[in-house]
């Protein structure tokens, strides 16, 4: 009778799968618990020791998880979530981990009751579709050109960060920077490339209030010949090069055999003439500043300084691209291909200033810059690093609003509304999927519950009161004020979230939970290192005879 054997094997497989899923759920919950306390404005900070022995003090979910070195594959997958959220929308990195952890936590009960993971995932996917529909329903469209609204929004989004104590400063910097680099792409849409065209330059010293957004570019370079070249030029003509201003060297080792002494002189003269011609081709366009990514020889420096031209060499490619965007110049590969249209005339001022011990070049007051530099000042490097992380989040939020000008209520109000609506809809879900669907609805309450915990208020009373107000999907704007822990109207308190951030957090969290639930086995592909000679020990046992004793080799120490 083979049938009972098959049933037994199947149940054993299911049992093994259940064990793996429970282990994955436990790992995901452990990751969520690490950063649960960093959610909200009254959140705790974490001090991390990085691999090089440095210290990082932050409450940014992604920055914390990035430094963790976890062995469990499911935990690594959770860390990847936070990174995806950060790259995609730049905010909500903590929320997405807390939500994914809670989704897996509520699924554990169904795994124990022998529910098939596919059933749970189907219910979760249905819940996600309905949750996004609720988001669309309660979202409020805003005018991205209205500065006051933008300021309030960015402030509320970074209100949970360390720099919220400095008021409007970071929000102002973020809005100014994203407004400068925004490019119209047609159909009323704007594209904002934060990574490419906004450079954050951190200079220790001074006060945080001295931080500014420059209408142009700042680079950590001095002129080639400080005594001979001008350090301040108004309305400069700028030429940007991608080629070296020095004699061309051979691709590989070159040997030249000279028989007469005059030939050596001719050779040197040819080198000089080559550089002179190159400089002449540049000077033909009467530039004030020449900037190259490659080297610049002493002779070229002499010819340029003689003509009253300031030169800067060995600039980064990314910085050169930013200068081109700021002053309207075109980067040229060969000096003999220069045209008048390649010369940048958009900059209002070229100046080299000394800040602390270092020289910085400023190309500022540009007419219509499409790149900018945010200059951050502060007491210490740790403070500046944290301010930079917060600024990146703020700029991402500003970019999201420019791209998708829709808002949803913050303070856990959105999650409570979604939860209430899903609970209502769960009664119409048929079959076995009804219970996981309802569990997903309850899991959304993890965000307001965590906010209440971090405020230090009575969690049960607060959550009961909030659930009462949201009972029938009403009062969509009632949530928790993260500073005081009071139940308040988010519209009045101007506590908002970007629609793009919320939608992305919901999608990422639920999709990741489904992915981890559907794993029923973990197979390691890593070979374990064997001790020398350990592999031979697994072969057939060999019986030693008397004659073999003489042939024994000494084992080296």
Question: Could you characterize the architecture of this molecule?
Answer:
- It comes from Nicotiana tabacum.
- Belongs to the TCP-1 chaperonin family.
- The protein has 557 residues and is an alpha+beta fold.
- Among the domains are: 13-141 and 408-518, GroEL-like equatorial domain (GROEL, domain 1), CATH 1.10.560.10; 216-249 and 265-368, GroEL, CATH 3.50.7.
- It is 46% helix and 14% strand.
- The protein contains 18 helices and 20 strands.
- The strands form 7 sheets. The protein has a 4-stranded antiparallel beta sheet. The protein has a 4-stranded parallel beta sheet with strand order 12-11-10-13, with helices on both faces. Strands 3-17-20 form a 3-stranded antiparallel beta sheet.
- Strand 11, helix 10 (298-306) and strand 12 (310-312) form a beta-alpha-beta unit.
- Helix 3 packs antiparallel against helix 4, helix 7 crosses helix 12 and helix 13 (413-426) runs antiparallel to helix 14.
- It starts with a helix and ends in a 40-residue tail after the last helix.
- Residues 1-10 and 549-557 have low confidence and may be disordered.
